Amino acid sequence: MSKIRIAIVGVGNCANSLIQGVEYYRNVRADEKIPGLMHNKIGNYCVDDIEFSASFDVNVNKVGKDLAQAIWETPNNTVKFAEVPTLGVKVLRGPTMDGLGTYLNKVIVEANEAPVDVAQVLKETRTDILINYLPVGSELATRWYAQQAINAHCGFINCIPVFIASDTEWKQKFLLAGLPIIGDDIKSQVGATIVHRCLTKLFMERGIHLDRTYQLNFGGNMDFYNMLERERLESKKISKTGAVMSQLTHELPVDEIHIGPSDYVPWLTDRKWCHIYMEGTTFGGVPLKIELKLEVWDSPNSAGIVIDAIRCMKIALNQGLSGPLIEPSSYFMKSPPQQFTDDEAYRNVENFILRTCEVNVA
What we know:
Elements lengths: L3 E6 L3 H12 L25 E8 L9 H4 L20 E3 L10 H4 L10 H7 L4 E4 L6 H13 L3 E4 L9 H10 L2 E3 L9 H14 L3 E11 L2 H5 L7 H12 L11 E8 L6 E11 L5 E11 L2 H20 L3 E2 L1 H7 L9 H20 L1
Parallel strand pairs: 1-2, 1-4, 2-3, 4-5, 5-6, 6-11, 7-8
Antiparallel strand pairs: 7-9, 9-10
Helix pairs in contact: 1-10, 7-9, 10-12, 11-12
């Protein structure tokens, strides 16, 4: 089978962890269990079948450098767990548009180079899939890159909370182009949203009425720094709140639920601390309260999910599937076109993998 050629938009911590992860698991056996992945092999593809074809950024510290070097440039600050050799992929200048908000403009100096023709680069590098890692709030830039993926006939994985896969107009665009899309807003392996969803579903299944809840997140990476600009938070709050609310069997008043990033603490670097609080009513009207703290390295927590998404998309491309991939999106993303409970989503994506494997074998 051919390699899976990946292009990345936004060479930040998430791109760093993805690239490290591909190198870290490059030589594992096909039957070996890998922490953070559904399967070592999905379809005919292992982790070492992923290779990087192109990358785009605007930061003067990254543009023009090899991707293996650029992932360690300021302001990236995630944990190092693998030595990445020179990849032979230069970071190219993409358009800025609304990618840099008020706060990121204070710490990121834009490269002087003119933006490249992204669609042409994707074609010339034989890219299969374009992955969107732009900063939260990059509404215009995300739509622009989604269109470049269509123009270059690439699949698109939207890892940020700009609604593309779950938008009717964009769904039609990808259907008409005969291309698959997975989105929107990547869900970590075990992060704040998935834990909050599971607890909410537990309340429902055990007959506890959820009365009110909050989820407060803070960390020290550029994602949290960017989200100090509250105007860029609207889609993020909608995505995270919707992901949790979808597990409820009753409406929760808007004043009784608060979910979203709270603050930026520089010394936490790429660690994220999450505080979840839930109040419910049990048998006899007796109250129940849960308080939970979760600490994770934010970017590695999502990298394995993206590796699984990449391989699901590649087998979809091989089969000529188009439009939003419902099963992978519902399991890998916070705001998919269709919400399921997490156990349903897990079974659905496993069935998707089995079906596509059978077709590929046939």
